[in-house]
Write a structure and sequence with these properties.
The strands form four sheets. Strands 4-12-11-10-7-5-6 form a seven-stranded mixed sheet, sandwiched between helices. By secondary structure, the protein is α/β, with parallel strands linked by helices. It is 37% helix and 17% strand. The protein folds into two domains: 159 residues, Alpha-Beta Complex (Aspartate Aminotransferase, domain 1); 256 residues, Type I PLP-dependent aspartate aminotransferase-like (Major domain) (Aspartate Aminotransferase, domain 2). 4'-deoxy-4'-aminopyridoxal-5'-phosphate binds next to helix 5. It catalyses: glyoxylate + L-alanine = glycine + pyruvate.
């Protein structure tokens, strides 16, 4: 039985000591005390099906026994900084990770978060090219430190950061974008930015393969290969932010960029890499990585033995339990069921995404696409009351985000969609 503080006490103290504009997500907040695979449990032992997975973070499942065992074993053995000494955990994981990436992407730098990984990637692109200008895509999210907050193109994720050398390109959003699904038309904006807003040379472009925080937006087909060739002609690199779309989540591919037929120069990872352990990574080519050898680049905990042991266990579980295939099969099934739900409920304006990175955009009017923001909050609250945790997102706050642990089953999928159906029917 739970003997911890009450929910009201936690809420009061959280407000006092951890004030933030984020959360708690629900009007009646969830007090989570335990996790097991695709389930979470509150203080009363009530079980919830987790269809959000800590924002696409839980790849194997909450507290997956193999990952827990790796963490406990390594914690008992050694938890230390690994930069100054040799230790096998960091090297084993770097080697395993590099084997999952194509081409020359074989050099790994570990960080503690996605923000740090993107900060490092942006710095490397700038050092390597000798240019300062970076292009990012409107509605994208890349982190909350100086460069990454600049690259993040949604006003509510920015404080008074001065925009330096970052240019935000028109979002190739097939649902709301002016050019629909025509990726090549959107790509022209990147050429315009380079021609009219820079010296003609840029450091690179950073992009998610599917915008997660932005509301699970799949970049219009043809966009990424086109902009990559434009940026490359301007001397720039392509940084693929795989923080949400990596590790098999998109089902059809291990990495999100692969579906676009492009090979990046730099790949950044976080979230799913550790199944909840705080770790991020930057992977690049030996040629680009040379820029970090001129100075002393150092992260005390980046790549520490415990987090890298966790990471290696995660990779093994993804392979052993065929989680990428599961993301494909079960994810496609969820999408199919959501599409049929769309025929029934007018409020669903769009269903999109791949594998287990899915979004349902809610609108008051399908023609005008007026965001159904209040309805969305009602739906996620009611779904929680019925035992399903789902995410919210999108610039207008009207997108239901489905990013479950990759061990989600077909039965879980049915329960998720049935509960969604039920709440929508009651609206
Ligand atoms: N990139 C993407 C695509 C993300 O979704 C996030 C986190 N939402 C980040 C980077 C930043 O990661 P972190 O919160 O670990 O700093």
């Amino acid at each position: 039985p739970y003997r911890g503080p009450s929910t009201s006490d936690l809420l009061k103290r959280r407000k006092q000591y951890l004030p933030t504009s984020v959360g708690p997500l629900y009007t009646n907040p969830l007090n989570l005390v335990e996790g097991k695979m695709q389930y979470l449990f509150d203080e009363n032992g009530r079980r919830y099906l987790d269809a959000f997975g800590g924002i696409a973070t839980v790849s194997c499942g909450h507290c997956h026994p193999d990952v827990v065992e790796a963490i406990v074993k390594q914690t008992k053995l050694l938890q230390h900084t690994t930069v100054l000494y040799l230790n096998h955990a960091i090297i084993d994981f770097a080697e395993a990770l590099a084997s999952k990436l194509p081409g020359e992407l074989k050099v790994v730098y570990f960080t503690n978060s996605g923000t740090e990984a993107n900060e490092l990637a942006l710095m490397m692109a700038r050092l390597y090219t000798g240019c300062h200008d970076i292009i990012s895509i409107r509605n994208g999210y890349h982190g909350n430190a100086t460069a990454t907050m600049n690259a993040t193109a949604q006003f509510f994720h920015k404080f008074n950061v001065v925009q330096t050398g970052i240019h935000h390109a028109v979002n190739p959003d097939p649902y709301r974008g002016v050019f629909g699904s025509d990726g090549l038309m959107y790509a022209k904006d990147v050429q315009d930015i380079i021609d009219y807003g820079t010296s003609g040379r840029v450091a690179g472009i950073i992009a998610e393969a599917i915008q997660g925080v932005g509301g699970v937006i799949e970049l219009a087909p043809g966009y990424l290969p086109a902009v990559y060739s434009i940026v490359r002609k301007a001397g720039g690199l392509y940084i693929a932010d795989e923080v949400q779309s990596g590790f098999g989540r998109t089902g059809s591919h291990f990495w999100g960029f692969e579906a676009h037929g492009v090979v990046p120069d730099i790949v950044t990872l976080a979230k799913g890499i550790g199944n909840g352990a705080p770790i991020g990574a930057v992977i690049t080519t030996p040629e680009i990585a040379k820029v970090l050898t001129y100075r002393y680049y150092f992260s005390t905990f980046g790549g520490n033995p415990v987090c890298t042991a966790a990471g290696l266990a995660v990779l093994k579980v993804i392979e052993k339990e065929r989680l990428q295939q599961n993301a494909f099969v079960v994810g496609s099934y969820i999408k199919e069921r959501l599409l049929s739900l769309m025929e029934k409920h007018e409020i669903i304006g769009d269903v999109r995404g791949r594998g287990m990175l899915l979004g349902v955009e809610l609108v008051k009017d399908r023609q005008a696409k007026t965001p159904a923001k209040a309805e969305m909050l009602q739906i996620i609250e009611q779904m929680k009351d019925m035992g399903v945790i789902i995410g919210k997102g999108g610039f207008h706050g009207n997108v239901l985000r489905i990013t479950p642990p990759l061990c989600f089953t077909k039965e879980d999928a049915d329960f998720l969609v049935d509960v969604m159906d039920c709440t929508m029917s009651k609206m």
